[in-house]
Amino acid sequence: MLPTLLAVGLLVQIVMGESGLAARVLREIHAAIGLAGLVLTAYALWASRGRRASLSYLAVLLILVLVQAILGLILFGLFRVDLGLFELVETIHRYNAYLMLVVGLVGGIVVAMVRRRAGSADAVAKGG
Fold it and tell me: In angstroms, how far is the first alpha carbon of the chain from the final one?
C-alpha cells in the first residue's frame, strides 16, 4: 500500500510541476506533498529492515528524495542561490523527479521478483 501511495504522490507532483502549478498557485501544497513523501520514504526504509532487496533500493530512493527536497527548498526560497543557477536547480529538480519514478518502478519490480523467487524456493523446500 505504501509503495502505491508514494508512486501516486510522485505522479501528482510531476503533473503539478510540469503544468507550472507548483511554481504558482499550488506552491505550498507541492512543497507539503514533497516533504510528506520524504517522511514516508524514510518510514518505508525503516519498515523494510531485514529485507535486503527492499532496503537497497529504498536507500537509493531516499537519497534521491532527499536531494529532491533540498532542491525544492532552494526553489521555494528557503536557501539563497545565485539567480544564474536557479534554472539549473529547476532543471535538476525536474529530471530528478523522473529518475525517482524510474528507480521506484524498477526497484519495485526487482523486489517483487526477488520475493516471488524466494517464495517459490520456500515452497519447493517444504515439498510444495
Answer: 28
Check if the beta carbon of residue 103 is closer than 8 Å to that of residue 60.
yes
Confidence band for 22, pLDDT divided at 50, 70 and 90: confident
3-class state of residue 120 by DSSP? helix
Domain tally for the chain?
Answer: 1
Q: Per residue in 42-77, pLDDT tens?
A: 999 999 887 887 888 899 999 999 999 999 999 888
Q: What domain range includes position 106?
A: 2-125
By the 8 A CB rule, do 17 and 34 touch? no
**Cell digits for 66?**
532527499
Give start and end residues of each alpha helix (H) in 1-128. 2-19, 27-47, 52-76, 83-125
Q: Distance (Å, rounded) from C-alpha 10 to C-alpha 6?
A: 6
